[in-house]
């Protein structure tokens, strides 16, 4: 089994419900077992500011799926939630599921980059990750605890704790 970390985000169509539903669907994926789920956080949008704030969380799961199979499964969940992929990379979205880490693998393909390219600089990823895995070290040796202590919060706020 490989320990993977997934970032969840939504800012459309009841983001709280979108994330809870996504977690429930991820819990049903064969060969996967959720280990931990962070609190839900509110964050400002990265791109255009003329969109609602985001709700974000991070979960860890053990899986026998390959990284690409996990990506395919997560994209299927996004599509079934009603996500429409647009040219605007940082636009509003119903659901965004990103593989942040997949064991200690380092991968950079046209479809998947692991560790996620924004992991170290996005407070809405790094702080929820630090909440559920404070002693985690990235494949390059960087400490999640140290990175999270040195990042600007940009108004990130905890919305609520989840029970999983």
Helices and strands, with pairings:
Layout: E1 2-10, H1 15-26, E2 32-37, E3 40-43, E4 54-63, H2 67-81, E5 96-102, E6 107-108, E7 113-114, H3 123-132, H4 144-149, E8 157-160
Antiparallel strand pairs: 1-4, 1-5, 2-4, 3-4, 3-8, 6-7
Helix pairs in contact: 1-2
What share of the residues lie within helices? 25-40%
Radius of gyration: 15 Å
Output the CATH class name.
Alpha Beta
Order of helices and strands: EHEEEHEEEHHE
Class computed from helices, strands and strand pairing:
alpha+beta
Question: How many strands?
Answer: 8
> What is the average per-residue confidence, as pLDDT, rounded to a whole number?
92
Q: What name does the CATH topology carry?
A: Alpha-Beta Plaits
Characterize the largest beta sheet: strand count, sense, and whether it forms a barrel: 6 strands, antiparallel
Your description of this structure?
The structure is a single chain. Strands 1, 2, 3, 4, 5 and 8 form a 6-stranded antiparallel beta sheet that branches. The chain has a two-stranded antiparallel sheet with strand order 6-7. The two termini are 20 Å apart. The protein has a single domain (2-160), classed as Alpha-Beta Plaits (2-Layer Sandwich), CATH 3.30.70. It has 4 helices and 8 strands; from the N terminus they run E-H-E-E-E-H-E-E-E-H-H-E. The longest helix is centred in the middle third of the chain and has 15 residues, at 67-81. Helix 1 (15-26) crosses helix 2. Helices cover 26% and strands 27% of the residues. 32% of the residues are buried. The chain has 164 residues and is α+β, with helices and mostly antiparallel strands. It is globular, with a radius of gyration of 15 Å. The protein has helices at 15-26, 67-81, 123-132, 144-149, and strands at 2-10, 32-37, 40-43, 54-63, 96-102, 107-108, 113-114, 157-160.
